[in-house]
Automatic annotation (TrEMBL), chains A, B:
SUPFAM superfamilies: GroES-like, NAD(P)-binding Rossmann-fold domains. It comes from Acetobacter aceti. GO terms for molecular function: oxidoreductase activity, acting on the CH-CH group of donors, NAD or NADP as acceptor. This is NADP-dependent oxidoreductase. Residues 13-327 form the Enoyl reductase (ER) domain. The lineage of its organism: Bacteria, Pseudomonadati, Pseudomonadota, Alphaproteobacteria, Acetobacterales. CDD domains: PGDH. Pfam families: ADH_N_2 (PF16884), ADH_zinc_N (PF00107).
């Protein structure tokens, strides 16, 4: 028997426990080409919030009363595929459950070695790809650039800070509260802004970047996006990765600096991690090198047990986490 | 004696006559390399409004109590340059005055022929470059694309409609009122939306583009920009050329569809016409061909006499004009 979280109703605004239900799923015999994976960790990520809405056909919504999906890591426990033997470590996309049955070609083999499972849901998984391609491709960041990254203590943001420093950029990170700001500073950020401190955010950003920004890596939207337009240099590039401050609200967002898109010739591009899946190997080669040399620090907020899946997800929006939020299974 | 409009105070919100004063400027003897030009027309354009604000160093503000500048066409009446003889037709950037004294290298020679002066402040001037490079370069529009252009009865918009059709695109134009909408339709637009008609603009845009937009050429900002984000296809490109609806206001602009920047991977780029000056010849070759073959219709709203300069400028914001607004001198 497997167990999986399902979405039973679509949240209005902030999600709560009543939107979720844990279901038993009887294990069917494997078909030819399938494997069964016992998950060790699954990922909870902000982009899952818009997937809980009906809607927009560009991010497939979660189906009601079906197991939810997302990145996961585990070990093969049963196999009818020549690709995998029992005990192999794989990543796949059937998270939010303790055990997954899938076609072998929908799993990715993970290297044998001493890298912990957690890395493959972080720097060496889609989070790493989001940081890497968002910074270097979408925002076209280059050595010497002044880069601002919001939610810099978060999973993606904390990687962006570090890989931007590794590539010779000046980095400004924002986070909420002294503890998170200390963490961002420890990652090598040149300037850290506590967005919870009093005063207009734009003034603080301008003080940190008196000559302006070349790049903004946006994880939050709203006031920080508006401020970044105000402080941007001419021809600055914005990678819009997430707008976590806006996911639980329908209210229109007010912008005062939008006109600078013209006067500064800003380039603003949205992206999601899956856009670069075909170039995964390139990213893994670089990130794998940095991780293996100890040049990237990862921090995790771990929730133990499948039962805590929704709480792990809610924690993304409370501002309480540092680094990557994961759910650990079978510990 | 020359006469020139000067800005004597910076407008708060909508500009009015009290912000302007007409000044006499004694003609100085020409220096070596200079020419004197009697202007036949000068241009009034929306981008001049932000130049009236103090401000942002990316669009040089007009200096208080100095003659304002802008595109103009005229004939050389006095010369100390080997480049020009008396009677030559030139364009230059010392508009808002009846006569201009400038270095010969700051003028552009215009072809001899039967093309009226007005064309060189429109399809064969910076307006043409704005439409051409904004559509084909900034928005990367290609044959087959579904293109939405706002203020489609205006100077830039009416050119965008026509050159997009000439390149095999499906074109949706917006304008205010039945007369302007008829004009846009006469230019070849496939669908015309009267933004003054009742109901949410986004619903009308979706009805006109049920499969979504590939390109949005934005001249107005605000509600139509928000609607275009809502109706855009995945990977749609937005060229942000102007935000005429927003120039006279400091109020923040509210957006409801901003999240689609991520989910649809939108690319939003601002630009101003000067960005492509180095590629002027390419644009003039194509636009000149279309104009010479009668494939581009231009319409003008002409204000007679230097005295009417400010009124011509105010007319840009009242929604009263069709086509390019010009001030005619010495008629």
């Amino acid at each position: 028997m497997s167990h999986a979280w399902t979405l039973v109703s679509r949240p209005k605004g902030s999600p709560s426990m009543e939107n979720f239900a844990l279901r038993d799923i009887p294990d069917q015999p494997l078909k030819e080409g399938e494997i069964r994976v016992s998950n060790s960790f699954f990922s909870v990520d902000p982009y899952m919030r818009p997937r809980m809405d009906e809607g927009d056909s560009y991010i497939a919504p979660f189906e009601l009363n079906e197991p939810m999906t997302g990145a996961a890591v585990g070990r093969v426990v049963e196999t009818r595929s020549e690709r995998y033997k029992v005990g192999d470590r794989v990543s796949h996309f059937l998270g939010w459950r303790d055990s997954a049955t899938l076609k072998a070609e929908n799993a990715l083999p993970l290297p044998v070695g001493d890298l912990k499972d957690e890395y493959f849901l972080d720097a060496l998984g889609v989070i790493g790809m989001t940081a890497y391609f968002g910074l270097f491709d979408v925002a076209e960041a280059r050595p010497g650039d002044v880069v601002f990254v919001s939610a810099a203590a978060g999973a993606v943001g904390s990687l962006v800070v570090q890989i931007a420093k590794l590539r010779g950029m000046t980095v400004i990170g924002s986070a909420g509260g002294a503890e998170k700001c200390d963490f961002v500073r420890s990652l090598g950020a040149d300037h850290v802004i506590d967005y919870k401190s009093p005063g207009p955010f734009e003034d603080k950003l301008r003080a940190a970047a008196p000559d302006g920004l070349d790049v903004y890596f946006d994880n939050v939207g709203g006031e920080q996006l508006d401020a970044a337009m105000g402080v941007a240099k001419r021809n600055a590039r914005f990678a819009i990765c997430g707008m976590i401050g806006m996911y639980n609200s329908d209210a229109p967002i007010g912008f005062s600096n939008l006109f600078t898109v013209i006067s500064k010739r800003l380039q603003i591009r949205g992206f999601i991690n899956g856009d670069f899946m075909a170039r995964r190997d390139e990213c893994m080669a670089q990130m794998g090198y940095w991780v293996s040399k100890g040049l990237i620090e990862s921090r995790y907020t771990i929730f133990d047990g499948l039962d805590n899946g929704p709480q792990a997800f809610f924690s993304l929006f409370s501002g309480g986490n540092t680094g990557k939020a994961l759910v650990r299974l079978g510990a």
